[in-house]
Amino acid sequence: MSDTMAENAELTMTDQVYSDDPLADRETDHYRKEYVRTFVDKWDELIDWAGRAESEGQFFIDILRARGKETVLDVACGTGFHSVRLTEAGFDVTASDGAASMVAKAFENGRSRGLILKTAQADWRWLNRDINGKYDAIVCLGNSFTHLHKESERRRALAEFYAALKHDGLLILDQRNYDAMLDRGYTTKHKYYYCGDQVTAEPDHVDEGLCRMRYSFPDGSEYTLNMCPIRKNYMRRLLSEAGFERVRTYGDFQETYAEDDPDFFIHVAEKS
Ligand code: SAM
What we know:
The protein is an alpha/beta fold. It is globular, with a radius of gyration of 18 Å. The longest helix has 13 residues, at 100-112. The chain has a seven-stranded mixed beta sheet with strand order 3-2-1-4-5-11-10, with helices on both faces. The chain contains eleven helices and eleven strands. Bound molecules: S-adenosylmethionine.
């Protein structure tokens, strides 16, 4: 199948594809079989953007503005939440994602808000093949980076991000607090509720190499994502080793946090 045919097939896929043993599906390329159109549509139907914007506040906007950043590449744009928000806040945003279904949805979501988003389909491992120019900042949000299952791919993606940034560029990358999940013998008792109680996300299986999250929707439908649980300090080390001079880590949008409390960590890495 040609690349274009494969992309078109992806755009119409409605069922997620896993092997007979889904816990063995630990390949990075697998994300394109997970973000099927039905999952993407349902997600956006139920996650109220206004609620999400309220819970996150001005955090990313403030960080970018405080450092005078203007051009932003959202490398995991998903359905476009941050690309739209940052565009509305006055940044010059390019929205990219490795999944064709996501890029299409982000464009649609932008258009329904009166914006024409600049979009591109780009896998992080080959980012600079598909994205031109250098940016003031790159954002990789929503626990996206943990779709990479191998260390060599993480290093490669970070090298691509680094190269796509100007000399004083900034990378903002977030992740779930997997340390808490791995260290506390995580049970499925802890549920994350997204913006009210419409969608729940809970870990279905956690081991050192896999965190399989299950998303349950009010109509009874369920979807899963196989992610790689990366630890906070390991991620900080990878960022430093990729060449970023300063890495500051926030917990749930706060500068101070109790180590196991936050659900999310946000790393802000500066090139110089
Ligand atoms: N940032 C969005 C948000 O917060 O709503 C989307 C988050 S979603 C959990 C993860 C996104 O990362 C998906 O849109 C997926 O297609 C993208 N992604 C995963 N692996 C990727 C890769 N190797 N290259 C490019 N995009 C990738």
